[in-house]
Amino acid sequence: MESKVYFTSLKLRRNENLLSKLERLVLVAGMETIAMENKFVALKLHFGEPGNLAYIRPNYVKRIADIVKRNGGLPFLTDCNTLYVGRRKHGLEHLEVAYEHGFSPFQTGCHVVIADGLKGLNHEEVAVNFEHIKTAKVGKALREADVIISLTHFKGHDLAGFGGALKNLGMGGASRQGKAEIHAAGKPHVLEDWCRACGICVSNCAQKAINLNPKARINRDLCVGCGYCISTCPFDAIQADWSESSANMNRKVAEYAFAVLKDKPHFHITFLLDISPNCDCEQQNDVPIVGNIGFLASFDPVAIDQAALDLVNGEPLNPVYETKDRDHFKSLHPHTFGEAGLEHAEKIGLGSRKYRLVEI
What per-residue confidence (pLDDT) applies to 187? Predict the structure, then answer.
């Protein structure tokens, strides 16, 4: 079945600015048809890693939050902690980064709630029983929300190929333990040079698979690969096995996105601006791969990702990059299989890759 994806370019009419054009887009697309009165509305976005300047401007986020409040909703900005070493791996640093980048209540009109808590351990297990994920570990605040609105900066990614609404929701909505499950094909391992032999991982391992000898050591026969030790280690000395294939990782992301949205009204907005070759998790953003295109809005997260991908690939690749494939992201990251996630998301009933682009 064909889904509607609403699109507007950045070309303005007289007496209009980009904020008002974004508002006009989401209203025509039907965002206000969602019942929001006295409902907690999660605005799921990526606050950007310090050093990166390609993340969504807080001005746009404020305009969406204002619409939610106008309809009686209780909006909050949210994301889950990261698995990798950076300044968003626990709740306090994550909040600091959000505020540094302009996502404070004073600038956006709503609070920031780190969805999986202080240490990335606060999640709800959501049964999905899919091919790769049986029970997803979703950030608690996302599951407690009544409505989810994703605000996605579309860009490249060196493991996924590209990052759109599915990745914003699936990877971004997973707790640290959930992220380990998405990324890992195997079991975690200890970086002995980083280990301080504090014993926290030992006391938190339900399988009794870790001992100190003298540093932490994981018994791979006893380990079930849950990734809980990765979340609990305060020194990032326990790492995931990052050998998962791009195709399977994208399929897991799709299954997690399903879990995040399960049984909830949802709406999706994608920003085709500053389309960088790599994720906003990077500490820098390189030259955009194509020029700025515009905004997209839809009730279908699969259709909006497919439309975003088609629009980007319909533009000429920036000449500073080499074209090797019709898919610009495949040219930049040849080992990735981004479309595997779209195919799988459609297969599990999350949405449709068939869409009708409605230009506003």
Answer: 77
Angstrom distance (rounded) from CA 211 to CA 278:
38
Tens-digit pLDDT profile for residues 269-295: 999 999 999 999 989 999 999 999 999
Contacts of 213 (CB under 8 A, 6+ apart): none
Strand partners, 136: 126
Structure token pair of residue 176: 């640290």
Distance CA 207, CA 198 (A): 18
| pLDDT value at residue 314 | 96
Q: Enter the tokens of residue 134.
A: 């049986």
Report the C-alpha gap between 32 and 24 in whole angstroms: 11
pLDDT value of position 131: 95
Q: How far is CA 316 from CA 153, 157, 203, in A?
A: 19, 19, 54
Give every CB contact of residue 113 below 8 A, 6+ residues apart in sequence.
Answer: 76, 77, 78, 141
| pLDDT at residue 206, as a whole number | 74
Q: What pTM, to 2 d.p., does this model score?
A: 0.89
What lies within 8 Å, CB to CB, of 106 at 6+ separation is none
The type of residue at 88 is R
HEC secondary structure over 3-68: EEEEEEECCCCCCCCHHHHHHHHHHHHCHHHCCCCCCEEEEECCCCCCCCCCCCCHHHHHHHHHHH
296 burial (CB, 10 Å; 0-12 / 13-18 / 19+) is buried
- Angstrom distances, CA of residue 45 to CA of 154, 160, 312: 11, 17, 20
Place of tokens 């980009």: 18
- Average pLDDT value over all residues in the chain: 94
Residue 161 CA to residue 153 CA, distance in Å, equals: 14
> Is residue 260 within a helix (H) or strand (E), and if so which, with residue range?
helix 246-261
Residue 261: count of CB within 10 angstroms of its CB: 23
| Separation between Cα atoms, residue 187 and residue 143, nearest integer Å | 27
> Using omega within 30 degrees of 0 as the cis cutoff, is the peptide bond preceding 214 cis?
yes
Q: What are the residues whose beta carbons fall under 8 Å from the beta carbon of 97, sequence distance 6 or more? A: 47, 48, 49, 50, 87, 88
Listed as ranges, residues in the chain with pLDDT below 50 are none
